[in-house]
Amino acid sequence: MAHDGPSSAALRLRRPVAPDRDHLRGVPSSDAVVVVGYEDFLCPYCRRLRPVIGRLRSALGDRLVYVFRHFPNERAHPGAELAARASEAAARQGRFFEMHDALFDRAPPIAEADLVEMARGIGLDVDRFRRDLRSDEVRARVEQDLADGRRNGVTGTPTLFVDGIRYDGAWDFHSMLEALERPVAARVHRSARVFASLPTSSGLVLLVAAVAAIVFANTPLAPLYERVMSAPVIAGPVGGVLTLTVRDWLSEGLLAVFFLVVGLEIRREMTTGALADRRAAILPVLAALGGVVAPALIYLALNRGPASSGWSIPTATDIAFTLGLLAIQGDRIPVGLRAFVAALAVVDDVLSVLTLAIFYPRAFAPEFALAVLALFLLLVALNRARVYAVWPYVLTTLALWVALHALGVHAALSGVLLALCLPTRPAPTVGSLLAQAATALDALEDAERAARRTGRDEGRLEQDAVWEWAARNLSAASARLASPAERIERAVAPWSAYVILPLFAFSATGVSLRADFSASGMAGIFAGVVLGLVVGKPLGILLASAVAIAARLAISPEGVTVRLFAGAACLCGTGYTGALLMADRALSPAGGAVAKLAVLVGSTIAGIVGTLVLRYRAVPVTPAAP
Fold first, then answer.
1. Shortest CA distance to 66 belongs to which of 49, 83, 88, 80?
2. pTM, whole model, 2 decimals?
3. CB atoms within 10 A of CB 113
4. pLDDT tens across 508-554, in order?
5. Distance CA 330, CA 202 (A)
6. Closest CA to 343 of 270, 251, 255
7. DSSP state of 12
């Protein structure tokens, strides 16, 4: 569910460049950089970008291929659609870029009579040009580009794509030249953006890390793996509350950032998205309860005596792995289903924490509960006071993390509590921000003109007071577009998806595949855990959801079919972290080893079954010929 800002559909160019259809300046080659621009002939910003593109073509020569696509904004620039059709009418006579240059060189407004004059000036057959200008084929050609742009998330002009990936950098010559020349850093950055734009990328990284951990734990590298994961990392006094192993720091420390991202996404969905309806929000709560009761009952039905204390092992859903497996499905999963699974997994984690605290209270220290409450109330107070600076929230959350850990609760939940309290802001008035940004840029432009008139070096403008003033105002206007919650989510989401979750997976899934089944009751433990995860989890979620929906206590996620819902319920059987922790707490070392192997087997089966159900497509049956 984690992401790095724009959706993959908006980040990647959906329709590849086709030389037989698109308008290209330059010849594509293995060494060439292809820049696709969705532009409007009457857009003042496209007109300002044009000389920059010209300088880039002069600097790069054959290494730059420029592709023009239409995105006329008739509402903002009356006559833009007519200008786009004029260029297509010229293209039918092999003169697209001649008309392209003439349109950009002429100041608006541009009437039809002006277009005819321009057509005559570039040597077109004027009668044919007039017919083509009004033809349905030319109109359809412009509308196709416009529809392509909208599908690609284009909302304004100019929007540029460099080698198939949207360019969100600065539009000045030197910034674009640096990006297009492909220095090592730019190539690495672009490759990373290409990989991140794949809908399955974060899930694939997570699975690779998990497989690597299993390999390490079951080869001669196992002693090294365990030595590294069990190595103490001390923050504070030796033997104090912050003396943790590498594995603990990864699962409780870094994973708090992942919980923060998930919490922010759930909060957004509850405010304006798929969980905004109260009955939609209550469904994952009831489903999580069903997903705890059913696997516990299945386990208890197969185990008696001391082994029965392991009933909680198959009740835990691992939020990181479940969402990672869901991410692998890409864009085929509706937003409502992603929000439902994320909310269910968070509720499930809270229930797991309560289970540990109530039924396995060996490390529970209730004296820290007051500190946890006080720090959470401080976060709420910061929110209510509309404190928009980030650092008070960060410091309070760090203290909350320590208090939760000392309490004996999974400290990563501090990320969810922070997500609940980060402030949002009402949407700003765009006109005032535009005025602020325009004033700053106008001041810089005036300073640049003055430098040219007096023969000053324009590069020294950065030393003038106007430069610092303009930079502060532009930064303030840009920052106002996003609330603290949105800024933090954008900053940490890529780290969560591609660094934190893989490290967590590598530390959590290093389970030995060897276990001793010779003792009495081991087979029951194994079967109870596997069946609890594979059968009990989805069965409990589905039954609880069906009852809640039938009783009109809840509503199903919008646009989610029964098959997709069932597949997601199966994915919730991936237990891993919480289940492994409960195996350590609930059973003897021998029973715990068997239970851990069962968690690995059951989670793998649940993940495979859920993936197959989500990817299943019914094959249409063709009636036999009579």
1. 49
2. 0.63
3. 8
4. 778 777 777 888 889 999 999 999 999 999 999 999 999 999 998 98
5. 10
6. 270
7. B
